[in-house]
Write a structure and sequence with these properties.
Length: 247
């Protein structure tokens, strides 16, 4: 009896690309949603075309809806004019799946003759600044970002972003990591703006960020209102209780 071949843990399905040696940019959920916000904004600003998706038995059983239409939770887009490919995820990648997803993604990037890979993520700090920290898989890649980022001297990159960088190093795919500084878990468009500014300088692009600025102001306004409401609730005077008198 002939057994059927086992389904691969990770499947990447895409249309043929028009780009010859694209830059692959990846954005997965993480602190401040920096990678997601930056990648989604680039997709919209460049009018990138949906060309494929990544699927895995590791992924949670969810369907992503936009305007009533179902989309894959991990999608691939292309801008052939600028030779840019973006991989964006709306779902977190579980640590146990990171290795297989990273390996499949980097193997695929090499199969499409990607020139380099850019992994975008957030980094939590308490400095209150908006720096972009950078790292790379080799000195040449480090050279193209050293004047645009704060080079990450010592530390670790966790999650799927770190796993992708490690796999790029193993497979000799030139890669850089851009980590937008953020103060907490709330969506942080301002951190994403700073990352996009670096991408514009490094790759000679002119992606506008006005919409993200407006989005950041809206989020900050809502968070400020929420903080005021919480403070009001916490400082509200305790109602005086009247106790019966016994004589």
């Amino acid at each position: 009896m002939v057994s059927e071949p086992e389904e691969p843990f990770v499947k990447i399905i895409n249309e043929p690309l028009k780009s010859k040696n694209p830059v692959v940019i990846g954005g997965f959920p993480g602190i401040g949603l920096v990678g997601n916000i930056a990648c989604q904004h680039i997709i919209e600003e460049l009018g990138m075309k949906y060309i494929g998706s990544i699927d895995s038995k590791y992924f949670p059983p969810v369907a992503v809806l936009f305007n009533g239409i179902v989309y894959m939770p991990v999608r691939i887009y292309e801008d052939a004019d600028n030779e840019i490919v973006i991989v964006i995820s709306d779902i977190p990648i579980h640590p146990t799946a990171s290795y297989d997803v990273s390996r499949a993604l980097v193997n695929w990037a090499k199969s499409i003759y990607a020139a380099k890979l850019v992994s975008i993520a957030g980094i939590a700090t308490t400095s209150g600044e908006r720096k972009v920290f950078g790292g790379a898989t080799n000195p040449e890649m480090l050279g193209i970002i050293k004047d645009q980022t704060e080079i990450f001297q010592v530390g670790t990159i966790s999650g799927i972003s770190g796993s992708i960088m490690t796999e790029c190093k193993l497979k000799n795919l030139p890669a850089i990591s851009l980590l937008g500084e953020t103060s907490g878990p709330n969506p942080d468009p301002r951190a994403s703006i700073e990352v996009i500014n670096v991408i514009n300088k490094v790759f000679g692009l002119s992606i506008e960020t006005e919409k993200l600025i407006a989005e950041a102001e809206s989020i900050e306004h809502e968070l400020s209102k929420l903080a005021e409401e919480v403070q009001t609730t916490e400082t509200a005077p305790t109602p005086r209780r009247e106790y019966p008198m016994y004589g």
